[in-house]
Amino acid sequence: MSSLAWVRRRRSVQRFWAEFRTHKAGVAGLGVLVVAVVLALIAPLFIDAGVTNVVSGTGEKLAPPSLDAPLGTDESGRSVLLMIWWGSRTSLLIGFLAALLSMVIGTVLGIAAGHFRGWLGAIVLRITDWFLVLPSLVTALVLAAILGGSTATIIVAIGVTSWPSTARLIRAQTLAVEARPYIERSLALGAGHWHITTRHVLPNVAPLLLASTTLEVASAIVTESTLAFLGVSANKTSWGTMLRGSYDWGAATAGAWWYILIPGLCIVIVVMAFTLCGRTLETVLNPRLRTRAA
Amino acid sequence: MTVVTEVEAAPARHGLLRYAATKAGGALLSIAMVVVATFFLFRLLPGDPVRALAQGRNMTPEQLDLERARLGLDRSIPEQFLHFVGQTLRFDLGTSYEYKRPVLDLIGDRIWPTLLLTGTALVMAVSLGIWQGARAGWKPGSRFDKFSTAISLVLWSVPTFWLGLLLLMVFAAGVGPIPGVFPTRGIASVDAPDGFGYVLDVAQHMVLPCLTLVAVVYAQYLLVMRSSVLDEVGQDYITTARAKGLRDDDIRRRHAVPNALLPTVTLVFMRIGFVVGGAVTVEAIFSWPGLGQLFYEAIRVPDFTLMQGTFLLITVSVILMNTLADVIYHVLDPRVRSV
User: Mind telling me which SUPFAM superfamilies this protein's record contains (chain A) (predicted)?
Assistant: First the structure.
């Protein structure tokens, strides 16, 4: 690749960052995200899966916040703070991987539906619309219940039910890109399907894809916690399974507010951070939105 | 003159019929796909379904064989498939293991509470969302607009079940010295009086589930209505109305909102699947004896026949609602029809 292209790319990244920085909400969201991800990554340096062990709980059952357990304890005397910290790893991992899976399916099928005219595109579009109509949470619940609730199946259940909106977006964008004259030029020079989709369409849809993936992570985290709360997830500690525990052990009636409030707040804060970040990315990267705002 | 209008009207009506027929055909295809997908999905169950069904029950191998024959599992996959399709076409959804009753009967019992709850919540959420969205979109960037956007962003990030838990904790269990005001579970008290008293009792039980559902679904209606009104603000006819000297409120109510309403209301029905997901969660938390709870119980047990039946019913009704919304939109909006 020529150095000229690299210079141009670096410039456009710089331009993007300068634009992104002007959106306070987006920067705040990004800050929260970085902190959350770093905390989740360094957790093994300080604690291990032992904090989620039912037998190793040292505190009293459902004890309010104290010096020993700054955020109180759960039904087995485990520290809610440490559980949250360890649980963030599961919640974020599932959120990221499910969004990634959904993005890959959505991109491939979206480009296919937009690029191939005729029956192939029509069939892909038909399947996309079918998935779009299905109530995603209900379908994800059935999938997770049938396949068992391991981390991998939860990721599959969320990914398989959430890709259609991405596919729709990518298809529209593909149609717009392929209407441009340089595609015709490329075709005249003998470019095949593979060259056009990977060298011309994909780079053009990539920025939007980034924005929509960020938003997708947010909803994947919410879906994961809902699936875990409704009890289809195996008992690996995540924010959702903690809330399930608080419901099963009657924390609401026992007045154990910390056990309900803290995991939920974590979900809300992280999801909101992803949403703010994604919306800012969308505003900065989507030329249509930018001209409207200007 | 009359001749001209007739000539113009005839193809339009013809087009509409054809459009409705196409949509109905599409819906039928979608439903067929759901039936096929359901069949294969529930055959994906790892291991022997009969053993899974018999979990925790003492059954001899002979009983298991009998059960297998009763479910038709001893036949080949194509045979099973034809049998399943035939049964489904006759609205025979099988018999629940947990309740020992036909799934269709169970659904019939549970459908009314769900319609009551989601219907009420939907009406409230739609009216609130449309009202607030219209005001927010009319003056973009105003304090009301910023407040609305912030609210919807927060509600969007809040998981349904957590909001339900919070309401349960504050209003049903009570916080500190404040006693709980609302019941924690169910649709009516055991000792509920008859007649009007019963209605009041049910209403009291419905407050918290309804509130949760409204809070979670109304945010998106607000956002859709807001952007829809925003599209109208710059239009020429608004400028004309202003030039005529109409009051600002009148322009909004009489001109902008009716035009913005159509896409919004359609979207409401297009996204009915989202409401259904919310209803499952809300019913599970508040033990509301509806379809959502039935589905949730089927997953908890797990009772696969019941799960399959409720899943089929839920998806098929969502598809039908979507198609209906599509056709009604076509009837109501001349702009789409002329295209």
Answer: MetI-like
Find all residues with CB under 8 Å of B330, minimum gap 6, and list them.
B16, B19, B20, B336, B337
Chain B contact set for A271 (CB, 8 A): 157
A25 shares contact with chain B (CB less than 8 Å): no
For residues A195-223, average pLDDT: 89
The nearest CA of chain B is from the CA of A28 a distance in Å of 15
Tell me, yes or no, if A138 comes closer than 8 A to chain B by beta carbon.
Answer: yes
Please report, for chain B, the start and end positions of each structural domain, with discontinuous segments joined by +. 11-45+93-336
Ordered by start, the domain boundaries in chain A are 72-285
- pLDDT confidence tier of residue B6, bands split at 50, 70 and 90: very low
**pTM (two decimals):** 0.86
CATH code for the domain defined by B11-45+93-336:
1.10.3720.10
**B296-314: average pLDDT:** 86
H or E element at residue A131: helix A119-133
Smallest CA–CA distance, residue A140 to chain B, in Å, is 10
d(CA A245, CA A239): 10
- The model's confidence at residue B339, banded by pLDDT at 50, 70 and 90, is very low
With beta carbons less than 8 A apart as the criterion, state whether A252 and B166 touch.
no
Cβ proximity of A145 and B295 under 8 Å = no
A73 SS3 class: strand
The whole-angstrom separation of Cα B292 and Cα B95 is: 18
Q: Which CATH class is domain A72-285?
A: mainly alpha
**One-letter identity of residue B301:** V
Select the residue of A142, A231, A271 nearest B307 (Cβ to Cβ): A142
From the centroid of its chain, how far is CA B245? 43
Query: What integer is the mean pLDDT of B206-215?
Result: 90
Q: Does A133 touch chain B (CB under 8 A)?
A: yes
Rounded CA separation B46/B65 (Å): 18
CA nearest neighbour of A99 among A169, A9, A161, A33: A161
Indicate if the alpha-carbon torsion angle A139, A143, A145, A150 is positive or negative: negative
